[in-house]
Amino acid sequence: MMGFDGGTRPRYWFTLVSGVVECLCFAGVLFGWASLVFVLKEDGYFGQYCEGSPNSTSVAPDCSRQDEQFSLVFTIGSFLNNFMTFTNGYIFDRFGTTVTRLLGIFLYTTGTLLVAFSSPALSEMLFPAMSCIGVGGILLLITNMQVGNLFVGHRSTVITLYNGAFDSSSAVFLIFKILYEQGVSLRTSFVALSLCSILHLTRTFLLMPRSYIPYPLPELYTYGNLSCGKANSYNVENFEKVTEDASKKECEADNMSPQKVSKYTNAFAITQLCGVLCAPWNGLIMDRHKGKPLAPGETEQEADLRSSVLSLFLTALQCLCFSVCASVPILPLQYLTFALQVLNRSFLFGGNAAFISVAFPACHFGKLYGLVMSLSAIVSLLQYPCFALVKGVLGGDPLYVNIALTILILLAFIHPINIYIQCRKSAQKKTDQVEVYQGTILAETTF
């Protein structure tokens, strides 16, 4: 590590650890939506969309329209989470860390309070609430990823660690679900989540810079006011099949009891906790060349790009495996799908941020990261039409949609192949230049 004295090094570590806790417990809770839907259905949210059977009272009501409303809430929230990242990135690049975090904290707290004081009669409040939580959470993540600049030799590892913690925070809604089953109301849980904004504010002014953490890191760089000792979306379409019947308590003919729904919902949510463990693997892959001598004529950035090829290829391969497993209609296999989903999501988002940080100037990181996330948000808008297509025309069978998505995923292999080719061309060009130079020197010496 560079640029620290005896007083700043503990501050760096304190900032790193507190940032991981912030991302792990708050930033990505939106993506634990599957667990929260289970609770919301129990409380009767969007219950007016359930249609009772006109012929028999023994048959559970048709709640497919209720499921569509829950799907729409998540689709809009995850879309804005990604699409607004371009604007959020610009705000970060233009106004710095403090302003960006204050905006994120305001939106996040607004969203949690909206959920806390919503009710089945005011189910529509979930639309702005989850959107605010999603956008506020991504703002917290953006401001935290710059902490990687404090750890020069492990920059990519730190960035992917934060993204992994962001992924794992989806398990917070699983905790809310468990508390709900123990008698703790949803309102109490979200009020408590709102009060935690005091911690975000404290960290903003004591452990984060007012503007940015520069890269490369200047010598004796310090920040904050703390005095130290001596400085995606994932698509839940495949899992909403598992949770959509949770409120049909009297449907004895159902293929899956409410108990089984809860079991798979819990299994899916628990796997999200592993995101914080999986994401650093990708960073270690990208940082594996650090500390080793560079090839003749090779720059640090070229070495970083060369090292990213393996990461990009593994990410695309994981996407393909995840999609194939999700397409197989064998319920126990979905445990493997859950594991692949969290591994792939950790590699995908963490690797994306790390790649942007090494391939482009740091002063444009926020805008470029936001642009990529905004493009992904546009693609995520296909989520709701796909859900409606499966429920309608395909009669609840997502096989053909999954096959189409699997074919599209094959396009992801273009990226690592392109980077590999560019690195080879660059290396060959430098080799040719060295040979020409050596030939010129030899000719002049002979003459």
Task: Throw out a few tags for this protein.
mainly alpha, 19 helices, 0% strand, single chain, 447 residues
Structure description:
The protein has 447 residues and is mostly helical. It has 19 helices and no strands. α2 runs parallel beside α8, α4 packs across α5 and α13 packs antiparallel against α14. It is globular, with a radius of gyration of 24 Å. The termini are far apart. The N terminus is likely disordered.
List the topology elements.
Layout: H1 8-27, H2 33-43, H3 64-83, H4 85-95, H5 97-116, H6 126-145, H7 155-168, H8 172-181, H9 186-195, H10 197-206, H11 237-243, H12 258-272, H13 275-286, H14 300-327, H15 334-359, H16 365-380, H17 383-391, H18 399-409, H19 414-446
Estimated radius of gyration: 24 Å
- Write the element-wise H/E pattern from the N-terminal end onward: HHHHHHHHHHHHHHHHHHH
Alpha carbon gap, first and last residue: 49 Å
Strand content: under 5%
Q: Estimate percent helicity.
A: 55-70%
Explain briefly what this protein structure is.
This protein has helices at about 10-25, 35-45, 65-85, 85-95, 95-115, 125-145, 155-170, 170-180, 185-195, 195-205, 235-245, 260-270, 275-285, 300-325, 335-360, 365-380, 385-390, 400-410, 415-445. By secondary structure, it is mostly helical.
